Amino acid sequence: MGTNGRYDFDEWQITLTAHALAYGFLSKALYNEPVLDFLAPLFADNLFAEWPLDADVEATRQGIALLSAFGAAWEPDQLALLKSDYAALFVGPGPLLAYPWESVYLSEEHLIFDVQTLEVREIYRRFGLQAPAAIREPDDHIGLELAFLVHLCSLGLDACARGDIDGFERSLQAQRGFLGDHVLRWAPIFMQRVIEHAATDYYRGVAYLGLGALETVARIFDLTIQPVEQQ
After folding, report:
1. pLDDT-derived band of residue 231, with 50, 70 and 90 as boundaries?
2. Number of domain units in the chain
3. pLDDT in tens, 159-211
């Protein structure tokens, strides 16, 4: 391990670990209904102050500030408010405030389970993965796409540990392709909608951290964030 002719594996290990941690938190926060077992340790230890990505991005700074303040005033009886916010944003009933599926933003008819869902499903399949509820739920949920990025980071870390340049390059190419073809085309506008419509600073802060993470990774891979405006 260490520096070779093309890559500084030590530096990439730090980068990939930081992004895997960030994607992992964002995936759980946006995919799962809020529960005390997940939230209480975050707030008790103010883990947001130790956010793994550099806070040199304005959205990241805003997210850390919102979540740290929310956590400092946290009381367990606020869980019902978070659950209500989660449902209104991502689940329903009724029209959602921030639809969490890629196809709603990128398909011609703005429908779920459209071509983007199938494209993402096929990418997962190539890496031996399957969405946990693929029959009932679209594979292109923001939480699942972020979890897939965690998986790609893990593949890169494993390749670093082995000194496997070819495997490492494949993991980076997969991550860059998935970000450029999918995540960066719609997730920024999704995060913006959460910021605009969330009833709590918790979800507003999560979305700001999401925007900051996307801006950071776009810079690393020299990609442009070009969200498609939804009609």
Report:
1. very low
2. 1
3. 999 999 999 999 999 999 999 999 999 999 999 999 999 999 999 999 999 99
Residue 106: CATH number of its domain: 1.10.3480.10
Q: Judge whether 24 and 150 are in contact, CB under 8 Å.
A: yes
Cα→Cα distances 105→76, 183, 188, Å: 35, 11, 11
Please give the span between the terminal C-alpha atoms of the chain, in angstroms, as a whole number: 49
**Is-contact 78 202, C-beta < 8 A?**
no
Range of the domain at 56: 9-220
Q: What does the block give as tokens for 98?
A: 């921030």
In a domain, 40, yes or no: yes
Taking the CA atoms of residue 1, residue 129, residue 109 and residue 93 in that order, the dihedral angle to the nearest 10 degrees is -110
Residue 119 lies in a domain: yes
d(CA 38, CA 109): 36
Question: Helices (DSSP H) in 9-78: which residue ranges?
Answer: 9-31, 36-44, 58-72
| The two three-digit tokens of residue 228, written as one number | 């498609």
Whether the model clears a pTM of 0.85, i.e. scores above it, the answer is yes
Q: 165-178 and 142-162 are packed helices; what angle lies between their axes, rounded to 10 degrees?
A: 160
